[in-house]
Amino acid sequence: MRTARNLVRVTGVVDDKTRTRLLAFRIFAWVTGVMLLALCVAMVFAYGFGDRRGISIVGPIHGFLYMGYIVATLMLAERLRWKPVRAVLVLLAGTIPIASFVAERKVTREVRALPDPAAR
Fold this sequence. Notes:
The protein is mostly helical. Helices cover 78% and strands 0% of the residues. It is built from 5 helices and no strands. The chain has helices at residues 4-11, 16-49, 53-80, 84-92, 99-112. The two termini are 26 Å apart. 25% of the residues are buried.
């Protein structure tokens, strides 16, 4: 099974590149999640009250930030040697309200559980 622990088997440590990619992933996961929630609120206003201004503003911003989330996730997935199915599931978390927050916590806990090279 390919997980973040396999990186430890190959290299023995989690290096600065992995930490940097994790930080980028965390930032994009949170920003994408917040913008998706804002988009949901904008959709309520659009379809409930007829005010579509929110969708025309928040929609493209969320789409642009989701592209960053895709790149950050794929870079982290490559570094940690995830199976493609896992990477796709984490990517899909950016399309479901609140799921990106859950995915971010789970991935962060997993990576932080790996050995630190400074502790050697």
